[in-house]
Design brief:
This protein is an alpha/beta fold. The protein is built from 11 helices and 15 strands. The protein has 2 domains: 179 residues, Medium-chain alcohol dehydrogenases, catalytic domain (Quinone Oxidoreductase, Chain A, domain 1, Alpha-Beta Complex), CATH 3.90.180.10; 139 residues, Rossmann fold. α3 crosses α4 and α6 runs parallel beside α7. The protein binds NADP nicotinamide-adenine-dinucleotide phosphate (NAP).
């Protein structure tokens, strides 16, 4: 089969479509014809050589897929040839075919096209894990979501709203209108406003109960200022760098704060299956009734993978950048 490959870490110009070995279908897996995949920041980092492939994972880029079952392993239950599905995968999404454990599959409802479905698994599962498992989100909580226009951010806004919480986001000003449409209660332009002051102002001095952070070191002190008593901060990335100069622990003690770091890529297969099972039960039905929407910014054909990577690096997107691979829409 064909897949997108690269020989040495470097820029997007060296990504090319080439022949690779067919995936091996384990008894508990199904073989998918991939119709679409979607980009994640991790793809760019891996291409640059900054994201080592975890043991046992595919070296091929791509962490999520949507497509059609074309073969079913002898122990794979609940799926048959012809089913349209999407899944979080541990690499291997930038390819024509992939073998996926049946416990990771989500069956597509009628209204979800392949290009929309490919935009769901990585960002919605990450946001779900961060909000519900790590931060134990409660109804009426105020949630500060940094990088609100990112794929994960746009998923988190919708999940917070669905849970009856109040999402506040930071994002570039020209992206705010779209984020209000998705359900943000307040959008903060982090370039012109002090986000901690804006959060305290909006919450009448109380602060945020939950913060999803993607920026890291440069935001930690202001995150602590923006926290309410007993707040939970979930650290998902360090887009602005990881170091925190001249740091005091005092706010952690005074406000009884919790800080959790998490990365999806390093999680065990068992963790991902349990997360997918919980998501399938509590969240997935909301894509069928339309109360949750995959947010697709742009769709590229996989022959334009270099352009798609350049576009993500430019930070211009609101939501997901999807890539089609021999698509046949359901
Ligand atoms: N820990 C995990 O399990 C996990 C899982 C998935 C993704 N992630 C991470 O989550 C982040 C978002 O991923 P994604 O794929 O959704 O990204 P994305 O769609 O490419 O969005 C990233 C957005 O973040 C904002 N941004 C970039 N650099 C920034 C900075 N230094 N300060 C403030 N804002 C900045 C930009 O929006 P503005 O124009 O608004 O600045 C940019 O569009 C990435 O860092 C990714 O690695 C973590």
């Amino acid at each position: 089969m064909k897949a997108i490959v690269f020989d040495q870490p470097g820029d997007e110009s060296q990504l090319r479509i080439d022949e690779v070995a067919e995936p091996v279908v384990a008894p508990a897996s199904v073989l998918l014809h991939i119709a679409a995949t979607a980009l994640n920041r991790a793809d760019l980092l891996q291409r640059e050589g900054h994201y080592p492939v975890p043991p046992g994972a595919s070296p091929i880029l791509g962490l999520e897929v949507a497509g059609t079952v074309i073969e079913v392993g002898s122990e794979a239950q609940g799926f048959e040839v012809g089913d349209n599905v999407c899944a979080l995968v541990n690499g291997g999404g930038y390819a024509q075919r992939i073998a996926v454990d049946h416990r990771m599959l989500l069956k597509l409802p009628e209204r979800l096209s392949f290009t929309k479905a490919a935009a769901v698994p990585e960002v919605f599962l990450t946001a779900f894990q961060a909000l519900h498992w790590a931060a134990r989100l409660e109804r009426d909580d105020t949630v500060l979501i940094h990088a609100g226009a990112s794929g994960v951010g746009t998923a988190a806004i919708q999940l917070a709203k669905l849970a009856g919480a109040l999402p506040i986001v930071t994002a570039s000003a020209h992206k705010h209108e779209r984020l209000y449409d998705l359900g943000a209660a307040r959008c903060i332009d982090y370039r012109s406003e002090n986000f901690a002051e804006a959060v305290l102002d909006f919450t009448e001095g109380k602060g945020a109960d939950v913060i999803l952070d993607f920026v890291g070191g440069p935001y930690l002190k202001k995150n602590l200022e923006a926290c309410a008593q007993d707040a939970r901060i979930v650290s998902l990335a360090a887009l602005g760098g990881a170091r925190v100069p001249d740091f005091s622990m005092a706010p952690f003690l005074r406000k009884r704060l919790q800080l959790t770091g998490t990365t999806m890529r390093s999680r065990t297969e068992d963790f991902r299956r349990r997360l997918t099972a919980d998501f399938r039960e509590r969240i997935w039905p909301h894509f069928a009734d339309g109360s949750l929407q995959p947010v697709v910014d742009t769709i590229y054909d996989w022959e334009q993978v270099d352009e798609a990577h350049r576009y993500m690096a430019s930070n211009a997107n609101v939501g997901k950048i999807v890539m089609t691979i021999g698509i046949i829409e359901p």
